[in-house]
Write a structure and sequence with these properties.
This protein is an alpha+beta fold. The chain contains 13 helices and 31 strands. The longest helix has 15 residues. Bound molecules: guanosine-5'-triphosphate. Pfam families: EFG_C, GTP_EFTU, GTP_EFTU_D2, LepA_C.
């Protein structure tokens, strides 16, 4: 295939604007997937993705398009996620492309992540092709939205196709525009190999599979390759593409996007963003790698069954390979035993990782409440980075604490500006700016503590604005705050995994709310359990969990053994995600109680 007939592109959009649906239609129209094999959102291959209806991992497929000019074109389509937590995935996939199809919902218009994704595409020098989706909806206003795109993004929309990804209307025109408006890859097939690793996964038989975009040169079996950042060297076993089925090819040439397998057993050798070259004829410089994404949220993950610590460790290593922004290191908790402190990009990311560990690796886990990274300045002049409240030094040794702030841009209909300002104020936000977008919408700019955002800001925002607001945020810096550590005591014993760092003025309310919530969540036991919240040894709130009176078997009148078994089983099931700390059984929800607190 001639290089000028290759097109490498991503579909970018705000969440739910229809990327995956458009990708499905493109696969159908190019006969990449036969109709009978087609299930909705075929690129979302993880069960979790299909259940939640969101795209988490990017996926690359090769497809052949017979264009109206009579020629065949090879498309490499890379689907990307839209949620703010996964913007690192977007930037990785974009670096493998030359162009991007920008999908905008014609009923909703430009949203916060439409803009954020466009910026990422522009940073990667991509040609952008705007497309208006969902024109079948009665509320669609394609002309208004086109004007919005022109004004806000500066993209010419005179030729923008109006489609319904759902029905397939005009999707064929999008394919033609991909051919005529997006550029072919520029590299040189005769130059030394330069291939960008943009994703990888672990296969238990073949080892690490690296997904690559060949920017220069060619790669084929038996080639001796080097990963430039890690220096690791391997001999290529197979190369190929996904259609989306895996297909083995004799070689991958410049401009192609596919996979390489080389019996790589050491997971650490393959880093996303690294460049692969040949040992014998290396390229001079590595490709511009990806932006390193730093985790913003940390939590502890512990196996419910302590004996499965090593399994958890292995699962995390494998998952990390597939998820470059995941971090983890061993930690111990007096309450929970041996586990790992893990870093995530945000709460959804944390949730997804936890769920993947449980499903794909069959682990039962306890996750502690999430925390941001605090800068703790001690009286001796040193600074500690603390991502675990339990590790905070004693108050007398602390001079001051800084916490991370984000600059948040919230696009919201005018009618809800007041309500959103209220919410931002409540969450300790500092007003920066209020910009008019058009007759109906405003863009609010606030600086907010990240810790407030990760708790329940997103859900609150949706309920304050009936779902009309959209949010994008970036880390903006550290600021000093009046923060204190709040401990929780059960039965007089501090449970380290339940400690949190809170804003001083919120401490009493949170302490109260937390003890009440724990009282509801922790099951009654044979004895009364005091639940207390304390700051620096001073108790600020207290409730009691009353002692248990009946046991579950009391209902069974001794007779029916199968019913008895069922009840016991049910009780066991409920216990699965419980951890016995001292004499008290604590369920998983207790560690997350702080998230739903106000
Ligand atoms: P993420 O993968 O989560 O980022 O979302 P996405 O942008 O891929 O959106 P997706 O394709 O999952 O579509 C979101 C919802 O919009 C689904 O319920 C689709 O059925 C619906 N949808 C997509 N395209 C159209 C369309 O053209 N018309 C209508 N009416 N609904 C559509």
């Amino acid at each position: 295939m001639d290089q000028k007939n290759i097109r490498n592109f991503s579909i970018i959009a705000h969440i739910d604007h229809g990327k995956s649906t458009l990708a499905d239609r493109i696969l159908e129209l190019t006969d990449t997937v036969e109709k009978r094999e087609m299930k909705d959102q075929i690129l979302d291959s993880m069960d979790l993705e299909r259940e939640r209806g969101i795209t988490i991992k990017l996926n690359a497929v090769q497809l052949i398009y017979h264009a109206k000019d009579g020629q065949d074109y090879v498309f490499h389509l890379i689907d990307t996620p839209g949620h703010v937590d996964f913007s690192y995935e977007v930037s990785r996939s974009l670096a493998a492309c030359d162009g991007a199809v920008l999908v905008v919902d014609a009923a909703q218009g430009v949203q916060a992540q439409t803009l954020a994704n466009v910026y990422l595409a522009l940073e990667n020098d991509l040609e952008i092709l705007p497309v208006l989706n969902k024109v079948d909806l009665p509320s669609a206003q394609p002309d208004v939205v086109k004007e919005e795109i022109e004004n806000l993004i500066g993209l010419d929309c005179s030729d923008a196709v109006e489609i319904s990804a759902k029905s397939g209307l005009h999707v064929d025109q999008v394919l033609e525009q991909i051919v005529h408006k997006l550029p072919a890859p520029k590299g040189n097939n005769d130059a030394p190999l330069q291939a960008l690793v943009f994703d990888s996964l672990y296969d238990s038989y073949r080892g690490v599979i690296a997904f690559i975009s060949v920017k220069n040169g060619t790669i084929k079996p038996k080639d001796k390759i080097r990963f430039m950042a890690t220096g690791a060297e391997y001999e290529v076993i197979d190369v190929g593409v996904r259609t989306p089925k895996e297909v083995i090819k004799s070689e991958l040439v410049t401009g192609e996007v596919g996979w390489v397998s080389a019996a790589i057993k050491n997971i650490e050798d393959v880093r996303v963003g690294d460049t692969i070259t040949k040992v014998e004829q290396p390229c001079e410089v590595a490709l511009h790698g990806y932006r390193e994404m730093n985790p913003m949220v940390y939590c502890g993950l512990y196996p419910v069954d302590n004996a499965r610590y090593d399994d958890l460790k292995e699962a995390l290593s494998k998952l990390k390979l597939n998820d470059a922004s995941l971090r983890f290191e061993p930690e111990t908790s007096q309450a929970l035993g041996f586990g790992f402190r893990c870093g995530f990009l945000g709460l959804l990311h944390m949730d997804v990782v936890e769920e993947r560990l449980e499903r794909e690796y069959n682990l039962d886990l306890i996750a502690t409440s999430p925390s941001v990274i605090y800068h703790v300045y001690k009286t001796d002049g040193t600074m500690l980075e603390i991502d675990n409240p339990a590790a905070l030094p004693p108050t007398q040794n602390i001079d001051h604490i800084e916490e991370p702030y984000v600059r948040a841009e919230i696009m919201v209909p005018k009618d809800y500006v007041g309500a959103m300002m209220d919410l931002c104020q409540k969450k300790r936000g500092e007003y920066i700016d209020l910009q008019v977008i058009d007759d109906l919408r405003m863009n609010m700019v606030y600086e907010l503590p990240l810790s407030e955002i990760i708790y329940d800001f997103f859900d609150k925002m949706k309920s304050y604005t009936k779902g009309y607001a959209s949010l994008d945020y970036h880390f903006s810096g550290y600021k000093t705050s009046a923060l204190v550590k709040m401990d929780i005591l059960l039965n007089g014993q501090i449970i380290d995994a339940l400690s949190t760092i809170v804003f001083k003025d919120f401490a009493y309310n949170r302490g109260n709310a937390m003890t009440i919530k724990l009282k509801d969540i922790i099951p009654k036991q044979q004895f009364e359990i005091p639940v207390q919240a304390a700051i620096g040894g001073k108790i600020i709130a207290r409730t009691n969990i009353k002692a248990l009176r009946k046991n579950v078997l009391a209902k069974c009148y001794g007779g029916d053994i199968s019913r008895k078994k069922k009840l016991l089983e049910k009780q066991k099931e409920g216990k699965k995600r419980m951890k016995k700390v001292g004499s008290v059984e604590i369920p998983q929800e207790a560690f997350m109680a702080v998230l739903s607190m106000d």
